[in-house]
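User: My instructor asked us to take a sequence, write out its structure as tokens, and then describe one feature of it. I'm not sure where to start. Here is the sequence I was given:
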Amino acid sequence: MIRRRALVVALLLALSAGGIDASAPQPVAAAAFRCTDWNSLTQPPDKLWVHVALKVGRKWKIDKRQEVDFKTYVERVIIKEWGPNETNRAQLLAAAIIVKQYAWWYVMHPDKDRTDIDENCFDVGSTPVTYQLYRSDAIEKQEVADIARVARGEAARLPLIRAAIEATWNMTLWKTSGVNKGFAHTGYRAGRYKKGCDHYYSAFHLYQQNARRCAQDGESYEAIIRRFYGPNIAIYSEPPFTDVNGNLQGPPEWSFDSTNPPYDWSGAGGSTTELQGDFDGDLRPEIGLLSVNASSGRAALGAFEARSNGTFWRDGIWNADLTAAKIDAASAQFQLADMNGDGADDMVITAPSPAVGAAPAPATTSIWIALSEKRPWINGVLQDPVIGAPILVGTVASANLLSIWDRDADGRAELVLPRVESDGRLSIDLLVVPKAGGAPLVTRWWSSPTERGAVDINSLQVSSAPLGIVRGVDKKRTPRSELIVAARYAAGSATFAIGGWLRDTATLR
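Assistant: Let's start with the prediction itself. The structure tokens for your sequence are:
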């Protein structure tokens, strides 16, 4: 049973510079240029600057910018771009998200070269060659057209457009993996209605006429968006914070009774614990219930997942035979991290190393990872990911020494595997899942200086710390971090901050 004392809070940690720990060392950087003074990636701006071109004959000439209410801008663009007869709700919901996202992306990616005739900056233009088609008189013309539509017994479009905008106003689109990971840029083209629903796919453009066929075939706006922009698109909606008294103050809280899971969940028949993570790659946390049966060696994972129309229970996220993988179910520990960079969390398991043959079991801890599997399309519907079978990938001296680090902020976590070299020095190895797929690889990343002498591995403490954003290096404004390694050596205690971009790069603290 779940008791929700507040709405779901999205795990958008450090998606902007404001999310970085203020106590962490910050790089010195010039103030970022903005045309519209707005820096939120979760709440849309109130206004934006639009360059409204001047039509001279058959050509459009540069003219002056106008400051436009953002909702009004979205209304006018939908009227011109998704018309003149579109009334399907799924299509209009998709249009409302895409049009808003498109302009919002330009607000967040300003360019000093975008200037009007007076050399004033603007966020977006108004002609369809480069930008969305925007006309200042679009609403007035639609009101006139709606009078004629109603007289013919047809639904007025403007109320439907406004309802779609309101319903999706706090929604944003994110690429959860790939080269363009982050706040999504939503291009779209006309397409061809006669080609059917699934004729075009580019992962960057939605094809409007084909999407219309999809909507008429009964697809939801979510399915339409993922169909054209790819399965790694997350539709994120930040809910308002509310406490138990109904005040708009955070943070929200979750609580649940792990001894009383959903009545129809069989699990593994063992002990049940909470395991929070993003199991479907939508950038929002789910509350998972992990059931482990020490007697049978089985493990199962289900989760409460938020959807646009409520919170639902999803069974079968993970089902594993721990015994077959030589994992001691009674002592296994479980962590979550996105190792393969697909946006959905993978399972990291540690347990005492198993014996090999007749030899006694070594006094080490083995590590297994179970990766999320790609999401297939079945009958035109994108399926939720599941977690695969566990794979043995390495060992550490103790489970307490294992940590997780995304060294280059690419959304693909690495496992940090400390070890003692033959000469007593500390070595930091990283276990990486290759971007091209295949077996995980272990590579040495850093070794302690020879003059420090032998390390006391039992004194080792490892953590990661935000480094901040380095403009010009972090093109996508992704926060970087350092690996902080503290230990006692023969020459005394020392703490090193290890860089994630270059091998064998560290600063003594």
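For the description part of your assignment, you could build on this observation: The first strand starts at residue 2 and ends at 4. Try explaining in your own words what that tells you about the chain.
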